[in-house]
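Q: What structure does this chain adopt?
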Amino acid sequence: MQIKFETALITGSSRGLGRQIAVKLAIEGVKKIAIHYRTGKSDAETTLSLIEAQGASGVLVQGDVADAVVAENLVKEAAQKLGGCDIFVQSVCPPLGEIYQHVMSTELSLQKWQLAFDTQARAFFVGARTAAKFMRGGGRIIGMSYSQSARTGGWQPWVGMGSAKAAMDSISRYFAVALGRHGITVNTVSPGMSDAGVMGQTPQEFQDAVKGWVESGWTPMRRQGTAADIADVCALLCSDEARFVTGQGISVDGGSSLMNSDFPLALQVPAG
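A:
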């Protein structure tokens, strides 16, 4: 794998999946990386030390991407500190309690609904458009999505995020067309039920139920994805080998999106 780009900004990289992506890019040769955080400065400093251990240098940028002006300015700040922004990855997810309510619940306020869109679709739109202006000689833009929730409606409390992720997937295709002539690729990466992201914020019984579901065969590879699984694909999309892949939604789910809910599992999973 060859990543020729030198500078990167990963939003939401103070911890979790964003941190894993930042470290992976450093391992693969990205020299200068901006680590973004909203409130967890100490976590961001930990990420910074991890990328420095891989030979990269880094800077910290702070701000709440739910504010469109802040979202734009932190990209500009990162580009100024790094001397460019060849790679932009959006990996921000608000705390589950701020957006997680059943679609018919009176607790799902318009403010919570809007927060999902502001931190996902709008922040991606603003961040990608701003970052592209600092990309010279090509570039890579990646949004962390969850395409399954964009197509289905069963996970009721995820309605705000699912709708916002659907918008992000759509926005990425418009950017892919607009930026293709400049050698900039734009894609989304869609993890399945993994141990990264919001899963760690759910009640233990929820996590146990998902783990059992995955291992029963509804995910053909019979395990949950890891942050490393997802970060590896992000790095691949940033590589020169992926220079002709754009406008795509890449599922990193061990095959779970291939399963058909119309049929019992016993009729889908091969014996043995």
